[in-house]
Amino acid sequence: MTLHVAPAGQLSTDQVASALRAATLAPSTHNTQPWLFASGPDGIELYADADRTLPVVDADRRELLLSCGAALFNLRTAIHAMGVHPATSLMPRRDDPDLLALVLPQATAPIDRRLAVLATAIPKRHTNRTPFAAEPVPAAAIGRLRHAAEVEHAWMPQLDAGQVAGLRDLVRKSHRVQMADPAFVAEWQRWTGRGQGNRDGVPFAAGGTVAADDTWVLRDYGTSSRAPSAGPLVVVIGTFGDTPTDRLRAGQAMQRVLLTATAEGIDASFVSQPVEVPAVRAQLRDLLGGGLWPQIVLRLGYGSPVSWTPRRTLDDVLVEPSPLIA
Ligand SMILES: Cc1cc2nc3c(=O)[nH]c(=O)nc-3n(C[C@H](O)[C@H](O)[C@H](O)COP(=O)(O)O)c2cc1C
User: Fold this and answer.
1) Which residue lies with its CA nearest to atom 13 of ligand 1?
2) What φ, ψ does residue 69 adopt, rounded to 5°?
């Protein structure tokens, strides 16, 4: 049966389709796009796509929840920019852990100018793995990025020089652990280095040029050419809990930080090895003082233009609505 986008709450069919397309532009580990959506008369549901898990690198589905949280932030932001309030509940059904969020587009809301700017950044954001220029990210912009994380209930602590050095060691260590694991390498290779014509996975062209002296960019998705690079800004986004809801919040915060960066002309890529290896993640938690659960590590700066990655179509990601919205 072919499923169709339906009008939802205050949104027309075209507006629902446009908001769902914005949601699908979110980043996801290895571009797995592990999300599904349903639209019904009362609203929109976001589901985890259980067929798109990564059993080796993401055994506990933490990064799946981050990716889906990023898609949810895009969805909420796109709806908001239409002047409609996206009333959102996370994990609304205890008996269905794959139903991650329920969004009820309700009465029209005054448009928050900051969210309208972030909505225009959604199609412009791309993971940028190229070497970054020596130019530092201005302190005022870092403050706005930190604020973006906090608005979404996550934190981006200021790291001192010792913590940055410690983080660099943990990146090296976790990278070694992953590359020595044949199951990790096999899973990574299945999703990367892809040619044209795929709707998912990381294409060869998105790999960028890995910098020889840039120890933050260790996972090589594309070319093996080497170029010099200055040290970029590296930040950790963390939450005080580590439940599925905390992870969904972390994904929304991550996406708000990424879109804020895009709107400021700042490029970003992910350095997620130290949060993917559980023992190293525990060490990173200690390095941050023991209070925060590190959820994602980002590299921020000014790179060269990069190309698009593909996405599944709306037909690929639509499922039947549940009685909650039907
Ligand atoms: C939770 C998460 C972890 C990621 N980890 C890495 C990583 O370690 N290295 C990397 O180069 N890209 C990483 N990515 C970026 C994805 O590969 C990228 O989002 C995907 O290929 C889609 O491309 P786009 O971000 O340009 O839209 C990660 C993305 C997410 C959401």
Assistant:
1) 270
2) -65, -40
Q: Tokens 């209070």 — which residue? A: 291
- Full set of structural domains in the chain with CATH: 13-123 (3.40.109.10), 139-301 (3.40.109.10)
Beta-bridge mates of residue 36? 47
40 phi and psi angles, rounded to 5 deg: -140, 180
Nearest CA to 70 out of 188, 9, 154 is that of: 154
Atom of ligand 1 nearest to the CA of 272: 8
pTM metric for this prediction = 0.95
Which residues does ligand 1 sit against, CB inside 6 Å? 27-31, 63, 66-67, 70, 126-127, 129, 202, 219, 221, 269-272, 296, 309
Indicate the DSSP class of residue 11: B
* Tokens at 101, concatenated: 């969020």
Residue nearest to atom 12 of ligand 1 (CA): 270
What are 270-318's pLDDT values in tens digits? 999 999 999 999 999 999 999 999 999 999 999 999 988 999 999 999 9
Which atom of ligand 1 lies closest to the CA of 63? 1
* H helices, E strands: number in the chain: 10, 11
